[in-house]
UniProtKB/TrEMBL annotation:
Name under which the protein is recorded: Phosphonate ABC transporter ATP-binding protein
Lineage of origin: Bacteria, Pseudomonadati, Pseudomonadota, Alphaproteobacteria, Rhodobacterales
Gene name tied to this protein: phnC
Ranges of residues in domain ABC transporter: 2-246
Transmembrane segments: none
Superkingdom to which the source organism belongs: Bacteria
Keyword check for Translocase: yes
Provenance organism: Pukyongiella litopenaei
GO molecular function, one term: ATP binding
Cellular component, GO, one term: membrane
SMART domains: AAA
Gene3D superfamilies: P-loop containing nucleotide triphosphate hydrolases
Amino acid sequence: MLRLETLTKTYKTGDQALKGIDLEIPDGQVLALIGPSGAGKSTMIRCINRLVEPTGGKAWLDDTELTGLSQTALRHQRRLMGMIFQEYALVERLTVMENVLSGRLGYVGFWRSWTRRYPQADVDEAFRLLDRVGLLAMADKRADELSGGQRQRVGICRALIQNPKLLLVDEPTASLDPKTSRQIMRLICELCAERGLAAIINIHDVALAQMFVQRVVGLRFGAIEFDGTPEELTPDVLTRIYGEEDWEATIQKVEDEDDAVAVQA
């Protein structure tokens, strides 16, 4: 379980990005984090694994207080927090397999990774993950030969090979077309269900979030404005989070797509 207690972040400029966030996410739950640009979504994700240092409050992963760890202890805990990035963060000149295996760096050490001498169990798991996401045939391709959706799948494999307890996902569909975006969201949710993983997905596409996740948290000006199910995201709620807009059209889009999926099934 992930637990945040009055988590705050104030930058040197005086801008308060997070204003006392209280949140609990049980194992196996996928949560979408929505809100306008500048609401604090990316900051919150990065404060959890301390890529950004919080100003106050606490973050717990199970019984470990992440905000109280030394840098050495934090490196060990980061192995339990898989990160999936908007821009993939792959090493372009390395192969798909090498990029996936880089997720084991926290376990095998620098020199073994430098010489690419990973344990056979890690290699076997990398092949299994690539097969699961439909990229087994591309294991030896360079990362710069892949499409955006394929790169994101590699990033998912790299995060999962860490054997994490938590996935932190930052705008995984921002650079993808609508069809690929749905495929990636579906894949992340399926993998979390298979592994009992908790996940926080920072996402701008409200309709996409409503289609796939179990819970939605809406941030506005660094504070939680909404915490509930996708079905509870009414036009009034979306107006509170984002401001005035024709939110009925967004909700209708989700309902239409859900109906279309039901008919195909």
